Amino acid sequence: MEDKFFGSIEYSNNAWRKSVECTIFDRKLDLNIRIQDDKKDGILDIQRKAYQDYLNNMDRYVHEVPKYMLNYYKWNFEEINKVVALNETDHKDSITETILYEMIRVAYFCIDRNGNYGWIIGCPWTKDGFAVLLSELTPRIIHPKELLNLHKLNNNS
After folding, report:
1. Considering the entire predicted model, what is its pTM?
2. If you average pLDDT over residues 57-79, what whole number do you get?
3. Segment holding 145, helix H or strand E
4. Which of 14, 53, 54, 69 is the most exposed place for a label (fewest CB within 10 A)?
């Protein structure tokens, strides 16, 4: 399909999808964009507006979000340390953004039907990864399934 805002985009697994090249956390990547549409009704204007908001705030997210991810990492350090082979000198308070960037990868940018959006981050300590909800005033770490179903939770459906 050709969308007036997103350009060429394909539908698969309850979402419109496309890939764009970008740089996040000093890593050039093909970011998979996922625009929720369970019933294949089409992309909503609120979703287009959400993506424009994301683009307008991208620099802020790249600079602000790492502190939230480091806090998440530190809160879960004991569990993560059981799975990830860290250097002997690494401990909870010695992990830096650079070390964290080596372990994670922004896999998806998702927009739900209500215009909520965020990243799904791949990491070695859990098969599901984690998500960063960006569309709120203060970014927060959530489970990827929560990000993908936030519109259902907010609508109580």
Report:
1. 0.89
2. 91
3. helix 144-154
4. 14
